[in-house]
Amino acid sequence: MLLELVTGQRAIDFSRIEEEDDVLLLDHVKKLQQESKLEDIVDCNLARNYDIDQVEIMVQIALLCTQSTPEVVRMLEEEGLAERWEVWRNFEKMRRLENERLQRRFNWGVHSINLQEDIELSGGR
């Protein structure tokens, strides 16, 4: 919900599929954040009437809330945003590298769709 407030966009938006692969707002924001394009994240209706540092903090908190075991309240009260943000970024980097490694190892891509169809068509063994 916080990402929707910052961006002025819906959580799922099929119009983004024409421009990129990210239909989910979460994936869209992650990509822009990783590319350091925070200005592209902010709702254009704000007409640059915002503090980019506050936007960065809100995006960080929103992305941290998407962890499988969110600890945002503890983070805000005890550990601090910077420490939790660094842990999350390292986790995301490792996850992304692992996904890329698996894609190279199994040569996933266009061919994986055909492979899946071949498996489904061949039936049980």
TrEMBL record:
Domain of life: Eukaryota
InterPro entries per UniProt: CR_Ser/Thr_kinase
Gene Ontology MF, one: kinase activity
Keyword ATP-binding recorded: yes
Keyword list, A-Z: ATP-binding, Kinase, Nucleotide-binding, Transferase
PANTHER family: CYSTEINE-RICH RECEPTOR-LIKE PROTEIN KINASE 3
Protein name: Uncharacterized protein
